[in-house]
Amino acid sequence: MRTIHAAVIGFGFMGKTHTYGYKTIPLFYEPNFNIHLAAVCAHTYEHALAAKERYGFAHAAHNLDEILSLPDIDVIDICTPNALHTEAILKALDAKKHIYCEKPVACGTTETRLILAHPNLNKVVTQTVFNNRFMPAAKLAKQFMQEGKLGKILSFRAHMIMPSNVDPSSPMRWRNSRQAAGGGVLYDLGAHVMDMLTWLAGPVKSVYTKNQTAYASRPDGKGSLAPVDTDDASYSIITLANGAVGTAEASKLATGKNTDLFIEIHGDKGALKIDFMDANWLYYYDSAAPYKGYTRIETVQNYGGDKNFPPARHPLGWIRGHADSLYEFLRAVNENRPAVPSLADGLYVQSVLDAMYQSAQHNREIVL
Ligand SMILES: NC(=O)c1ccc[n+]([C@@H]2O[C@H](COP(=O)([O-])OP(=O)(O)OC[C@H]3O[C@@H](n4cnc5c(N)ncnc54)[C@H](O)[C@@H]3O)[C@@H](O)[C@H]2O)c1
Predict the structure, then answer these.
(1) Which of 137, 254, 333, 355 could disulfide-link to 161, CB 3.0 to 4.6 Å?
(2) Cα–Cα distance between 137 and 262 in angstroms, integer?
(3) Is the model's pTM score more than 0.70?
(4) Which residues form the pocket of ligand 1, taking CB atoms under 6 Å from any ligand atom?
(5) What is the pLDDT of residues 133-168, one digit of tens each?
(6) Measured in angstroms, how far is the CA atom of residue 124 from the centroid of ligand 1?
(7) Distance from the alpha carbon of residue 148 to the mean position of ligand 1, in angstroms
(8) Residue 310: how many CB atoms within 10 A of its CB?
(9) Domains of the chain
(10) Ligand 1 atom closest to Cα of 191?
């Protein structure tokens, strides 16, 4: 059985989340390949060493070049702050490594072009981590859209909202700095919103966006205030190529919420709704049914196949979608086929987000 050797670059929230995936995939799926946690890289050697010792990586390093010089690495798994993604992608492509990269893939159009122009882009397996696609309710929604159950798509609303920037005393983090994050909440949460929307309902024709920054500065952790140059919330009117019009919101100013990802799509024959705070169900409305109202279709933990572990009837959690996303990537590496969504798919979403920033900056509709 083949062994896939993975190196995790950046070991914070997502480094841990992806490591959970590598460790649990053998339990969830009993795959026909082995996974080796070959290396971990963090901003300091001590941090990487702690991850190595606690989670069983074979090697610890604090720079990517050292990781790339190791003889047995197949996969570069990028979990660093956004502004570090492109350099890591380009180096991994130079070294012909397979790439699993967190969203947003790149920061701005110049970086996007550099990645798309790389001669090795289609010679390795690449995947963007749009983990929400891998929730069972999202998969069934995609199937319903492909089957044309909604008819002609007319309108939609989509949002990902949480409260993490509501408190003005919460300190500056890399996510509040354009230099480290490339953008604000629109990059961070808007990437998920626009991926889910375009994956389900089709590509974007135009965007009209207004962004909001609630506080001009935040404590820098050293007793002073640091200027905030990123958005805390973003509100858009989106027109799709198929003519449908609707709204998209990404916000960290949503007091009272948790991590609410919500998509509702209305067609001339029906409608569907995904609410990931209520992730065990897909809500579907059939205009032709002899009754009115949304039907709640159970999707629970149904990942299909005869090795459905744990049994589908158990309630679902967010991290399970991450594990399924990673499994799609590792299977593609093992089978030497393209993975979906690829880096190019991630860069399409990036082009939409960059158009949204352009729209907010110039206060006008931008046609893609
Ligand atoms: N798909 C999702 O559900 C999801 C959720 C959260 C974050 N993300 C994305 O994941 C990425 C990481 O976010 P996070 O929440 O894990 O951030 P984080 O701050 O928790 O962790 C970032 C890690 O990167 C490491 N790092 C910083 N500079 C480095 C360098 N030069 N070399 C190596 N490592 C370095 C740090 O050690 C830190 O541990 C971001 O791009 C973010 O948008 C995705």
Answers:
(1) 254
(2) 12
(3) yes
(4) 9-15, 41-43, 47, 79-82, 84, 102-103, 129, 131, 188
(5) 999 999 999 999 999 999 999 999 999 999 999 999
(6) 23
(7) 38
(8) 12
(9) 3-132 (3.40.50.720), 133-314+347-367 (3.30.360.10)
(10) 43
